[in-house]
Amino acid sequence: MMRSDRGSIAVLGALALSSVLAMSGLAVELGTGYAAKIRNQRAADMAALGAAVAYKAGGQDIKVATDAANDIAVANGLPSGVATASQVTVNGQSALKVVITTPVPIALARAVVNSGSYDVTTAAYASLVSNTTPACILALSSNTTSVTASGGASISAPGCSVTSNGTIASDNSSAKITAKQVVGKAIADTAASYNQNAITTTPVAKNIKTQPNAAVDTVKNSTAVQTALCYVNKLTGNNDPDYQGGNKNCTSPLVVPTVYSNTSSTDWSSDWGGKSSSGFNQYTNGSCNYTIPAGTYTIRDLTIGGGCSIKFLSGSTLTFRNVNMSGATMTFGDGDITITGTFTVSANDPITMGNGNHSFGQISIGGGKSLTMGTGNFNLVGALTLSGGAHLRVNTAATNTVIIGNDGSSSNPKAISVDGGSDACFTSDCSAPTAAAGTFSASGYISTAGGTTIVFPKSAMHVVKGNLALQGSAIMGDGLYVVGGDWTNGTGGAMTGVNVTFALGGSFNFAGGTSFDLAAPTASSGYGITDMLILTKTSSATGISAGSNGKASGLIYAPNSAFSSSGGSSISGNGSACMMLVVNSVSVTGSGTVNTANCSSLSNGSGSGSATVSLIQ
What we know:
Helices cover 13% and strands 40% of the residues. Strand 1 (83-90) and strand 2 form a beta hairpin. Among the domains are: 6-127, no CATH class; 135-216, no CATH class; 258-381, no CATH class. The chain is elongated, with a radius of gyration of 37 Å. The chain starts with 5 loop residues before the first helix and ends with a strand. It contains three helices and 48 strands. It is mostly beta strands.
């Protein structure tokens, strides 16, 4: 007898079909749940941020935070009451946690599950550590320990934050980093390993946050900063990849001197006994003293020696090729004076020139001689050399220009050299420049030795094509200084200046006990760039060392440079006026100190990379 299998096969087929339908239903339910999780996570992130803001604004009331979280959840299409908020601690930081739980109904998979729905829960955490504290020390490097205090060094930012894209580190309990807030990719406080803290915050304790990419360079977006750095590139020929076209689309600030000629063949010379060249005796009474009446004179070479004196009366227009003064006195009244060659002074009594335009080929003054000029434009084709206790005073008045060339060297040409206890002053008041001069431009480096003094005028634009190597004292008149090379002082001179901005092609380094008191321009000064003290895009190291100390009010912007303070050096803001650093990295060693003071006065400031609250998970 034969058995029929058709009924068994039908049963097996029905069972298999049920399993396939159940598995398909589960797959659909999982997809629905995954979509709900993504939706809930998006809502939780927004709710955490909003609830954190509400929590801080509402007196840290958790009910206020929960209500805000639910309002945001509803705005994202979720039912009311699905969100809960709580204050928690995450990695040592205070945070607000928002949890959103919603049911997902089961439809196709009911054949294999008993419940009619399941819950999807998501959570988000928003930091309650505010990162809106202005950062007055900003270290942009993320590849290294970019803020370091070691030895007995200290970094102090009492009114603002220390923010770094790298690690912020102190290597012992004596190396202090104190700020209103500390934000870095990582925090390495060696003292914490033996229950001490060298990295601290005040007035709120432990206002320390780990966050990558917290330091943001917003200074480069300043049009005024870009323009000043463009002027530098015009001097150096460098290209800046941070800006379109290498940041060279500007007019060069350098002004070159005017070159004059002299074709005269007439010489005037005198020495002891009143002996002089033909045509010159008529201006003396037989002695060695000459008085030249007003007129127009074109002389090839004028030589006054052997204790003789000469005086040109006011109202003259004078042109010489060379002037060699080794006699007693030389006086020029008001009027224009042009010396196309070299003006050499080596005697001891003063030379005075009245008001008028003064132009020279070269100036060399030594032997303690003094040269004083009245108001008028100053034009020097070659170099200015002062030695042996020489003194130069150019009484620069409002709108007068000071234009200096160089010594003609093909490599590193010299514009000004002051040594041997000499001094050069380019303003009417050598203790505090007052007149608003026109452009000051030097087509080479400026070098001063220890024990010397140089005084720059007030001017909207000061240009130094080479290095600004000041080993002596310097008074910097108000204005923008565009320097093609390095700015250094290493022998203990004093540098002062208010309403000054320095845009450099190289680095700045002060050492050897140099003291400085420099202040960036205020918004009302009309000079330089408001709040900007030093600007450079160099990758060379910058900083202070070997006992250098002083005050610097304003922003020091060196985003590619490692800034350091070492050897007992100190740099700080001035009173309530802030010092800000935006640099690649900061290293303070030995007993060096960096103290920013209060940063609230800076208007061109910096970015810290986040708003009042931020998501951390």
